[in-house]
Design brief:
By secondary structure, the chain is α/β, with parallel strands linked by helices. The chain is built from ten helices and 13 strands. Helix 5 (217-227) packs across helix 6 (242-256). It is globular.
Amino acid sequence: MTSLATGQRSLGDPSVRFPLWPPLTEGCPVTSTDDVAYPVEVDYAYDQVPDGFFAPGAAAARPRGHERWAPLLPPLRAPSLAEGGTPLLPLEDGVWVKDESRNPTWSHKDRLNRITVSAAVGVGAPGVVVASSGNHGASAAAYAARAGLPCTVLTSPDAPPAVDAFLRAYGATVLHVPAEDRWPMLRDLVERTGYHPVSNLTSAAHTGHGFGPEGYKTIAYEIHDELGALPRAVFVPTGYGEMLFGVWKGFAELVRLGYGERVPRLYACEPAAGGPLAAAVRDGVPAAHVPVGETAAYAIDCPVGGYRGVVALRESRGAALLVTDEELAGARAELARGGVWAELSAAAGLAGLRQLGRGVEGPVVCVSTSSGFKDRDLLPQ
């Protein structure tokens, strides 16, 4: 099945539209200002979605990987690594864990990078470049290698051992760059080489790749397919908010197409040491910058948020939760007792649920984003 994507539109003003190609990698050039960068999203010909596309059992008859959901994704022009299809595991009565560590590079980022590397192939880019402290870089390197494209990764000097091993195995060019220099260097490399950026280029707020978050919609599709219904709530580890937005949009599409009555309430679970989305929601602004204190949740300790997260929480009647490292460690230990070894950041969803207490009505899904092998505390002491 081919993509039904028709174009891109601004989240700042949905009436502002752009062609599907080329994918916008710096947000909306019309509605964004020096102070606020509004992302774009992909629109689709929803009236052409095949009847029964999300009916029980329908997905199982289709190919593995993103091809299973191809009509509601941007064109898939890079080869698959059989991303997605991760298990939904019962943790206790009414609580489920979506274990994203089962993806090809052990994290949820594979869902995004199948899409972004496809975009790079679609525009004929000579390679891809990514700024990442961990999971994103490992995933981008894998999909670039699969597509036969060189990949440059700007990462931290203290990248986790598993991430470093992934990058070396896939032949990526790795540059260890201080965090404050990473994004200016990314922009410079894009301008000099023509490589396609698969991570954020904007500084006023996070916009990210225009196509990328579409890959995260498949989490919502799979949850619906396995539960046979929409859950009441979903708890999502949150950094820049791309996955949070993608999960919301996937559920919103299911409701739009008649497979549910109401989008689940989404909870963004951020480290208490920072929390730009919580700050934006509290202050009623499209995005916020915050100082980031000490935290071991390096994968989601973002100093700046993006408007995507605000949209997801507003439209789902959700909330932003700030979880401490102690709460994260407790949630990680609880997941391990259930047989799931998660990265500390990945346990933020369950930590958020436990913070709210047992009064949340089920079924509830906590997304666990990555494997415990990705933690920095595995470095030799």
